């Protein structure tokens, strides 16, 4: 409990021995205690020490090493609990106090306090905008795939009645099965009781087509990332629903301004970018178009709070805040591959830094086909950027490697689903490296981490400079809650401040001399350290 910070119910506490008595009327129960019971009761200071349990301590240490790598306080806490069995209470308390005083002034403690208060500021963001006259009671979600079903399930568990719209009766049946899987998972994981699951199930309805949609407070399209498909859905939704209905898009990359061009009432249109899986991930990017009204934003932010999400307000750009930084991160990682690093090294280096997953394991999980489609879309619109490395295209077009879903991506996957090094991928990397005339060299883990962090910081500075994000703290929340950036480092921009302006400027300047095509010193760097 100390390591994880998770609470337990009173019933659990009684079984565990944390408390001695449980009553509906604790004061009355205490008054009614027999004198013999009161005399036998001992103050905690006088209770015998617990028996040593080295196995439990080692299990706890292993858990901390696996689930909380890089963090100092959890290991210290385990050690303190373990030694309490063999140390007099007075001395154990003195050791605990000393450890606390050391830890509270550490960089990690400052980072965690920064995140704590930044999260609470974000959840209160809705106070800056008009509050809707009433809370949403009904919603429509277009698309019953993995993302749409998860959004609908999230809304339903928050007490909102949801109609899921699909193209045909067969698609609607498929969507119903996706929803039922989520409900069953909620029961199996202990999140939903059987009665609560029935209530959620009753709030979910699937239909085909737009002909008989009920009046609703909110409609969210969750179709795949195709501009023509999404605009067609949005036009049909607007025509089928009352003018006061808020209409949202769950696009991850597409231009929200352009998506609103065909709407008669663009002021009620907003981007609500849920992160996958939507019923688990806490981040919600609320994307404001040039014509989104303050009232619409207020309603979106109130809904985010109701759903238990961390909302971050974003302006319009390709990928918004998080996916724009992610694209730069992946481009830089691919560049390291053709310069001499390998897939395993890069993933291991970023895990060692504290990321939940390395960039290649994460891309295999989301699917190389998604990355490929985005690369092709951007190439048509803008052309490939300077120094683009065509590795994703090779793996998808030439070898049909789509990630875990196809059993092969950046890694090979066996029947057990475990990743292993791919010689085919290694040979393609060498081939592209030769074609691009790179002289390969070895990279240390620190060099890999430094290069990728600088890439992300540079992109984040541009995002702030353009006003897409309001403040550096927003970047921190997006990276922590959307992309597995280590919470104990405080987020990307907080970590940049810890590195220091002079050090960052020197690192960027050195990279500019080495490769002026890909690098520059971010203009916003000075302002980051003024906030």
Question: How are the SSEs ordered, and which strands pair?
Answer:
Layout: H1 10-16, H2 26-31, H3 35-40, H4 54-67, H5 73-83, H6 89-104, H7 107-123, E1 138-142, H8 146-157, E2 161-166, H9 169-188, H10 194-202, E3 204-208, E4 218-221, H11 227-240, E5 246-249, H12 256-259, E6 269-274, E7 283-287, H13 294-306, E8 310-314, H14 322-339, H15 343-353, H16 359-366, H17 368-382, H18 391-398, E9 412-413, E10 419-420, H19 423-435, H20 445-465, H21 472-483, H22 492-499, H23 501-514, H24 525-528
Parallel strand pairs: 1-2, 1-4, 2-3, 4-5, 5-6, 7-8
Antiparallel strand pairs: 6-7, 9-10
For the biggest β-sheet, the strand order reads: 3-2-1-4-5-6-7-8
Helix content: 40-55%
CATH topology of the largest domain: Rossmann fold
- Secondary structure class reads alpha/beta
Beta-strand content bin: 5-15%
Tell me, what's the shape? globular
CATH superfamily of the largest domain: NAD(P)-binding Rossmann-like Domain
- Number of contiguous helices: 24
What is the count of structural domains?
3
**Secondary structure: number of strands:** 10
Radius of gyration: 26 Å
**What is the CATH class designation of the largest domain?**
Alpha Beta
Major sheet summary line: 8 strands, mixed
Average residue pLDDT: 93
């Amino acid at each position: 409990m100390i390591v994880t910070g998770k609470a337990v119910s009173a019933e659990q506490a009684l079984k565990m021995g944390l408390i001695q008595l449980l009553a509906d009327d604790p004061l009355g129960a205490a008054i009614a205690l027999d004198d013999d019971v009161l005399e036998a009761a001992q103050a905690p200071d006088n209770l015998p020490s617990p028996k040593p349990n080295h196995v439990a301590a080692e299990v706890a240490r292993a858990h901390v090493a696996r689930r909380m790598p890089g963090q100092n306080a959890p290991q210290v806490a385990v050690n303190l609990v373990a030694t309490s069995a063999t140390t007099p209470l007075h001395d154990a308390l003195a050791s605990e106090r000393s450890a606390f005083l050391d830890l509270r002034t550490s960089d990690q403690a400052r980072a965690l306090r920064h995140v704590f208060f930044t999260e609470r500021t974000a959840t209160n963001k809705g106070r800056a905008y008009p509050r809707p006259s009433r809370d949403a009671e009904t919603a429509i979600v277009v698309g019953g795939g993995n993302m749409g079903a998860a959004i609908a399930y999230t809304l339903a568990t928050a007490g909102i009645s949801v109609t899921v719209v699909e193209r045909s009766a067969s698609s609607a049946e498929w969507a119903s099965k996706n929803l039922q899987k989520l409900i069953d998972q909620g029961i199996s994981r202990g999140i939903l009781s059987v009665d609560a699951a029935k209530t959620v199930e009753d709030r979910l309805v699937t239909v085909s087509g737009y002909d008989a949609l009920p009046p609703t407070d909110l409609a969210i399209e969750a179709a795949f990332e195709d501009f023509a498909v999404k605009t067609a859905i949005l036009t049909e939704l607007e025509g089928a629903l009352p003018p006061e209905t808020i209409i949202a898009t769950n696009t991850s990359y597409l231009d929200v301004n352009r998506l609103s061009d065909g709407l008669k009432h663009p002021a009620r249109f907003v981007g609500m970018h849920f992160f996958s899986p939507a019923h688990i991930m806490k981040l919600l990017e609320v994307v404001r178009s040039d014509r989104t009204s303050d009232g619409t934003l207020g309603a979106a932010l109130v809904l985010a709070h109701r759903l238990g999400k961390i909302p971050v307000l974003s302006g319009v750009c390709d990928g918004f805040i998080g996916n724009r930084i992610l694209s730069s991160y992946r481009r830089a990682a691919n560049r390291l591959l053709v310069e001499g690093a390998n897939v395993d090294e890069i993933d291991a280096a970023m895990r060692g830094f504290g990321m939940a997953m390395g960039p290649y394991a994460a891309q295999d999980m989301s699917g190389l086909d998604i990355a490929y489609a985005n690369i092709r879309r951007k190439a048509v619109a803008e052309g490939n950027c300077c120094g683009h490395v065509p590795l994703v295209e090779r793996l998808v077009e030439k070898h049909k490697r789509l990630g875990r879903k196809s059993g092969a991506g950046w890694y090979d996957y066996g029947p057990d689903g475990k990743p292993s090094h791919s010689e085919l991928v290694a040979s393609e990397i060498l081939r592209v490296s030769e074609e691009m005339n790179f002289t390969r060299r070895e990279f240390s883990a620190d060099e890999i981490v430094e290069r990728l962090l600088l890439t992300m910081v540079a992109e984040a500075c541009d995002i702030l400079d353009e006003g897409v994000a309001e403040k550096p703290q927003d970047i921190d929340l997006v990276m922590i809650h959307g992309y597995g950036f280590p919470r104990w480092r405080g987020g990307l921009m907080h970590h940049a401040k810890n590195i220091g302006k002079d050090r960052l400027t020197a690192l960027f300047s050195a990279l500019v001399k080495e490769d002026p095509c890909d690098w520059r010193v971010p203009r916003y760097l000075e302002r980051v350290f003024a906030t």
